[in-house]
Each structure stands twice: as C-alpha cells, then as structure tokens.
Amino acid sequence: MLLFHKITELAHHAVAPIIRAGDIVIDATAGNGFDTLFLASKIGPEGRVYAFDVQEEALSRTADLLSAGNLGQYVSLIHAGHEKLKSYVSEQVSVVMYNLGYLPQSKSGLTTRLDNTLGSFEQALTLLKPGGVITMVLYPGHKEGKLEKEGLLPVFKGLPSSQYAVVYHKYLNKSNDPPELVVIQKYSFSR
Predict the structure, then answer these.
(1) What pairs with residue 166 in β-bridges?
(2) Are 169 and 184 within 8 A, CB to CB?
(3) What's the Cα-to-Cα distance from 148 to each of 35, 108, 168, rounded to whole Å?
(4) Pairing of strands 75-79, 180-186
(5) How many CB atoms lie within 10 A of CB 36?
(6) For residue 147, how many other CB atoms are within 10 A of its CB?
(7) pLDDT tens profile 6-18
(8) pLDDT(102) > 80
(9) Which residue, of 33, 123, 162, 182, has the fewest CB within 10 Å?
(10) pTM (2 d.p.)
(11) Are 12 and 41 in contact, with CB atoms under 8 Å apart?
C-alpha cells in the first residue's frame, strides 16, 4: 500500500492530525473540491469549511462532490479569490489548504497568481491559530506556477523559526517539474 500517490494526499496526511471536530478550516482554492470534501469530512456538524474559488465551474464541481458525500451543510462556498480570505473569515482557523495552479479540464486558462497568493498567505497567517497548519501545493511545471514558486519560497524561508516550522516536500525521482508541497505550522508555544 502506498502512503501517498499524489502530493495532494501528502497534504491531507499533514493536516489530518491537526483537525478536530468543530474546527474552522479554509480551502483557499476549491478547484475540483477534493480538499474541501476532505476537510468537511473531518470537522463534523459543529465545524465550518470556507471554500474559495474565482470560477463558478469550480464551485459547481465542489458542490456536486459535497452533495454526493452529504457534506454540503458544513461548507460555505465563496465565489471570490483567495486574496479575500479576511473579507469572509474572521474566526481563528486550524487549517488553510492551497492547491495552486489551474482548474483541471477547464478551458478558462485561469491560474492562481503570485500577487494574489502572497496577499492570501499573509491573511492566512493572521487567521491561523496556534498549532494550526497551512499547506500549499505548488505547480512549477507551467509559467505562472513557476513564478509563484520562485516568489513564495523566499517568503516561506523568511518566516521566523521561533514562530513557525516550515517543511518543503518535492519528488526527487520524477521529471517535468512535478508538484511540490510546503507545510507550515504555527507553534503553539514560544520558542
């Protein structure tokens, strides 16, 4: 049995032990809805998932997936970019998940962009409660994804080590710039 087949599964493994029933969590990039579904399955009836996407098609796919899993009642689907997190979320959150890039099988050609992602990440840090985790799946295999990676990694590296742990995962035996994962945990104590 494989521990994880995709880097997105590794992101799920990273946040699963953090999420408790009743938690508030964010899927900053709903896309096809797999992260939203995963989060909704963990938070229970007292919790809330805020799922953001700029594309109605993505939110529709996510809604269909949630409906099939009977988990839609735990999720607020928000038709807005992830750079607007704090316009919709004021509570402290235990997890924020990003799956950057573009919506698979979409003809729109829209991708996440560095400036929006940086703004969103800064907001996510202020919403993250002690002990909380942010995951960010990066896609350096396309032009905009490469720009995001190059702009984000120095920001992650610059986070104070007394407040955050930052781990960087990448495949060493795959070609063509496969996806990469950054996991950031806010310490629940002063170091």
Answers:
(1) 184
(2) no
(3) 20, 19, 15
(4) unpaired
(5) 34
(6) 16
(7) 899 999 999 999 9
(8) no
(9) 162
(10) 0.94
(11) no
Question: What single letter denotes the amino acid at residue 57?
Answer: E
> What is the distance between the alpha carbons of residues 135 and 137, in angstroms, rounded to a whole number?
7
The CATH architecture one would assign to domain 7-186 is 3-Layer(aba) Sandwich (3.40)
Q: In the structure encoding, which two tokens stand for residue 127, read together?
A: 């919403």
**What does residue 164 show for φ and ψ, rounded to 5 degrees?**
-140, 145
